[in-house]
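Hey, I'm writing a tutorial for new members on how sequence and structure tokens pair up, and I'd like a real worked example in the thread rather than a made-up one. If someone can provide the structure for the chain below, I'll link this post from the tutorial.
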Amino acid sequence: MASSLTNSIFLVVLWSTILFSFATTLLAAVSSLESEAVALLESGWWSSYSNNISQRCKWHGISCNNAGNITKINPSADLIPVGDRFGKLNFSSLPNLVLLDLSDRKLGGNIPPQIGDLSALKYLNLSSCELSGELPSSLGNLTQLEFLDISYNDNINGSIPPQLGNLKNLVSLNLSWNQFAGLIPSGLGQLTNLKSLILAGNMLVGSIPFTLHQLTNLATLILDSNKLEGSIPPNIEKLKNLRIFAIYNNRFTGSIPPALCHLTNLLILSLGKNQISSSIPSCIGNLSKLQTLGLLSNLLEGPIPKEIGNLEALNILDISKNKLSDSIPSQIGNCVNLWRLDLSNNNLEGYIPPQIGSCLSLSYLDLSSNHLEGYIPPQIGKFSNLQYLNLSYNNLSGNKDLSPYLCDSPTTPYFTKIFLPIAIFSTFSILGCLLLWRFKAKKNQSGSQTTKNGDLWSIWNFDGKIAYEDIIAATKDFDIRYCIGTGGYGSVYKAQLPCGKTIALKKLHRLEAEDPGFDKSFRNEVKILSEIRHRNIVKLHGYCLHRRCMFLIYEYMERGSLFWVLSNDDEAVELNWIKRVKIIKSFAHALSYLHHDCTPPIVHRDISSNNILLNSSLEAFIADFGTARMLHLDSSNLTVLAGTCGYIAPEVAYTIVVTEKCDVYSFGILALEILMGKHPGDLLSSPSSLQNAKLIDVLDKRLPPPTSQLVAQNIVQAATLALACLNPQPKSRPMMEEVSKEFVSSPKSLEIPLRMITLSQLVNHEMHIGGRKETCHV
């Protein structure tokens, strides 16, 4: 009896202990969740949610895990007051936070040392926050960190904390465009997982640390615009995965080490504006993947090695302002993908090799200030892409003082000659392809997909049935008669299906499938881009993937590209001022959607008049995602050069950093092109034109001047925003979200008549964009 009573008491005590422990744990968890919400409220940024703590996971810019813990903070710029200095955010109350993204939020002030309390943090982006002071050493406590970006803050100074060497999981480190001084810490060599290291635009001194050769996973090393000196270390050859090596605008001396020639994965090699001497090693020809070679403004001498002709992938070759001698090697004609060639200000002699005529993609050619002689090869006159030509200060027959020449249009006349309305439906550069077996789709096209042996056929959101036989029949097996255009990645076919529906088929070149990473990249990018839903972005209906043939299925645009319409006088007149402003607003909203409403954000990288398509009602749609890139939170967003000459942001040529601001610049160019009826290259290349010209004088003369005051206001608003987007400093350009919001608001009344407004007034016009004043300088 006593034993039974004892057992009962024991069980009661045991269960009471378990229940108490469970209740305590539950209360602690609830308390922890509430403390996270309280921390957000106390910051002042989410004060409007004070009566809704239980719904904290649905607050703007907040994400949670399954347990309800706050794991991500990514508020919009509207939520955070300018100069709020991190509010009163209590970092110690957010132990589960893995992502903190406050980029482009004008916080000001110093980075608080308490940020080191975020022990679970993996992603920290504080770029373009107008921060100042020194980096806290407590950042070294964030040992789980994989991504750290504190770039473009201008006033962050002091030395780079050596404690950053503790961040062994770091994959990407970007401290560029601040005021860091002192040496590059040797401890960064311990970050063996690092793939991207960007320290450009600071005041760093000393040499490249010997320890950096330990970063064998490094793909990107950018040290531009510092005060670094010494020679390029020979142990750099250990960095076998390096794709981008940039030390432009420093004080490096010595020669180009043969060790660089062992980095056969290099895509970008930028050594310009240093004091590098000796000759260009012939082994430079081993870098067969190289796309940009910048050696300008050094002390290089001797001949240009003929092995330069091995670099068939080269897009940019700039070895100007050196002491190079001898003749231009004829092998340069093997570089058929060149679009920028600058050999100016050297001691080159002999003839211009006629083989240069094989470089049909050239848009920029400068051979000035040398000792060249003889006749100018007639092949140069056949460069249909050429925008800039300078052969002056040579001894060329009949052209002694030939001066720079800037073409009227940057757009390839090739498209003018064979372009028909849908020609530039160029899409993803790495997209896919079609199954060749005889297959008939039986299901409704709103969601059909079939796979077999690595082949893929998929159609989404289509109101009819498409089978492979229908495609073959509609195009007579892709007969040339149905081809309505061609581009860099394939040909476009017009196909009318049995149901009467007309579609556009982008049949991609088979060469794209030879890349081993093609299939994975194709499926990933198609998946993301298939989810895009915006009325001003061309709809992708589906795709076919097969080892022998590949195409994509798009809605058909009856009026073709904006370039085609602007190039045709009759069609251009139909595009009146109201429609032009509407087009500018439409693709501004579409770009804002890509940059700010897609996860991850998408940067198009090739905004041009060829890639804006028009339907039968002259409504605008963005097309050609062939070079689009997703801005992944866990990547450095560096890439090879892409885009259309004349629309590419100036910083892209040497930094190769993909940001939304690249698209912003292209938007500015294209908006002016729509207003002017032609590319604004001539206008922007002449400072005197900007200072003296009146807005009314640069508007498209094929249209009568606007008589409506409202239309005039809209034109001025569009022109002002376009010029703001052309600021040479990326951080000073507005975001597309801000541009889009400006267009939604009513344009301001004009204080003076349109005929009296000058471009200089617009260029230097102080305007409120996104809650801050901007002074625009082009």
